[in-house]
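Field reference: "sequence" (input) and "structure" (output). Example, Mannosyl phosphorylinositol ceramide synthase SUR1:
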Amino acid sequence: MRPIFLRSVFRVAIIATPILLGLHYFITHVLALIHIFFQHPGIAITQREVANAYLNGTLQESRKAPQIPKIIHQIFHNWKDPANETLPSDWEQQRHTCIDINPDWEYRLWTHKSSLAFLSTHYPTFLPAYLSYPHPVQRVDALRYFLLYHYGGIYLDLDNGCLPSIKSGSSSLDALTYFPLWITDGGRGALSNNILAARPNHPFWGRVVAELIEGRGALPLGSLTERLAGFWKRWWCLWGVLRYVEISWGVGQWFIGGVWDKYHRMLQLGKKDAVGGKIVLEGVDEEIGDHLWIFSMVLGSLVGLMGWLVRRYWRAQRGKGYRKVKGEDMEDRSE
């Protein structure tokens, strides 16, 4: 007897396994995307509440030494003329609101030239991915994360400014330096990356940097991929919504929101990598652990399918009864 049914079992298993694994991958990533538009972990507090508590002496964090260095980072990349480093007049006025109010803070304006020099010196392995981003704004997004991880400080987009301090002689940003990490919530579901702050080498930014070094949102270099990227930008991205999704989910604010939620889940699970200063690359274990119930459901379905196929096979074998003896066998037995 030829094991036809057994071959069918393996054939179905070979087809079903990648389908189920693909469904698991798709469902977990869709859930991760949806999750970033809901309530985020962490302590929600407004800048005014921090300032009032700081001035009233009720800010508990101010009893300790400041954790965020007094550095203001801003980025200006002139996409049309990279050699021209002259800021538009409105951005020039906005940045001076921070410089004038915070005279004891170090101010750094990162241009095309200084950005490349920074990455070439400190993160040369990331430079190919940085240069391959299909949209210039992605380079600005990625650069701010590396600056905060490396130097620490406060990052502000150039269209954001600083308000005068409530109390004379007190810097408007001083109260924000007592928290080791904070990120802005624009109140529209997803977190924002227009104003960010952290101490140097914070593990949250370490996880962000690790994902970007792996190639998140980047395109492989080469003539074919460059042509495909050009086609994408010319035609597919004429739909502004899709272009916005590509930028936000690639290295923008949606990406940051996803890492933020994942980082706090690791803190709740007590994973050492989340509280240490070590950069940990994302792996399969974290992806499975983040959606354990889905992985269990998919794995259970796969095991159940295999069990059902095996039972069908044995039932088919029992239903056949005795094997019919051929004429040659009858003659051999009669001798």
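The chain has two domains: 1-35+291-335, 42-283.
The two ends are 25 Å apart (CA to CA).
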